[in-house]
């Protein structure tokens, strides 16, 4: 399973639609300070369902929408799509590629899609569960994450190991069943 491409449109410092493609193996993003490197990892977090504005380095969710510069007017929405190679079927869907899209309008209206079909945030969360990807996955190690793992409470540490072992979904399903 690997990240094949990332498409940004109106997200943070990327007003125009751009597509970044990645090969298997290591990719490094280089550039001067403030050129948008961290905005790329923010986009990956965001499209996988991140709800914390703090993790996205903003004050409110609207801050992910291109806010304009002296030369350009602001955008009305932010849209990010991520395409993941699924030829090994690590994600429980019968297709070789999975594309997840998130769009947010200034009005606050938002949409999520999987392979073009409208879904709920919950569906994205469930799809990524136990793959290591997703909002609660360990595939993005941000600054401070290592220290957090070492110093966090044993219950939180256990959650990280459960995700890595691929058993989070059982705890999740049990909790969901108990709600009903
Ligand atoms: P560093 O090397 O310092 O870590 P970086 O390449 O990671 O820099 P980012 O933090 O990704 O840089 O990008 C910061 C830039 O993104 C700033 O110039 C900021 O103005 C711009 N930016 C962030 N949010 C928006 C937004 N909503 N609209 C327009 N520009 C934005
Ligand atoms: Mg940075």
UniProtKB/TrEMBL annotation:
Residues annotated to bind ATP: 32-39
Membrane-spanning residues: none
Function comment: Required for chromosome condensation and partitioning.
Subunit structure, interactors included: Homodimer.
Record comment regarding domains: Contains large globular domains required for ATP hydrolysis at each terminus and a third globular domain forming a flexible hinge near the middle of the molecule. These domains are separated by coiled-coil structures.
Family: Belongs to the SMC family.
Protein name, entry field: Chromosome partition protein Smc
Source organism per UniProt: Zongyangia hominis
Source organism phylogeny: Bacteria, Bacillati, Bacillota, Clostridia, Eubacteriales
């Amino acid at each position: 399973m690997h990240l094949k491409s990332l498409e940004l449109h109106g997200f943070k410092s990327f007003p125009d639609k751009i597509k970044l493609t990645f090969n298997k193996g290591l990719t490094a993003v280089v550039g001067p300070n403030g050129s948008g490197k961290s905005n790329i990892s923010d986009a990956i977090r965001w499209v996988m369902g991140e709800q914390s504005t703090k993790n996205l380095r903003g004050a409110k969710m609207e801050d992910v929408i291109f806010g304009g510069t002296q030369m350009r007017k602001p955008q009305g929405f932010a849209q990010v799509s991520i395409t993941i190679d699924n030829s090994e079927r690590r994600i429980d869907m019968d297709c070789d590629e999975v594309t997840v899209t998130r769009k947010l309008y200034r009005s606050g209206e938002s949409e999520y899609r999987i392979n073009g079909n409208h879904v709920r945030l919950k569906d994205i969360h469930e799809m990524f569960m136990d793959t290591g990807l997703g909002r609660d996955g360990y595939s993005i190690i941000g600054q401070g994450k290592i220290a957090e793992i070492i110093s966090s409470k044993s219950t939180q540490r256990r959650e990280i190991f459960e995700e890595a072992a691929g058993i989070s979904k059982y705890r999740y399903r049990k909790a969901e069943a108990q709600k009903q």
